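Exercise 7.
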Amino acid sequence: MSSPYELRTNDNGKSKKQSMAELKLRRLTEMNQRLTEDLNRRRIPVSEASMDLIAFTDKEPKDFMVPSRWGSIDKRDDPYAPQQQGGCCTIM
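Solution. The predicted structure, written as tokens, is:
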């Protein structure tokens, strides 16, 4: 007769505790791998990233939302300015 506290075994003959331990080990191994990849990722100081961003904005097309950087522009060239309508209504 088996004791009431005997561990049950699955089809492979492994105990439930052993399979749970293997699952924990696999999860920890995967987490360790992700953390190692994160640690090896290239990092740069904020000052260098800021300078890169400023250099990028100097090369790209003008941003009309920053007039202090690019100066004021003509209203007809501004895509963000309200468009002038021919009248008070639009017929569709």
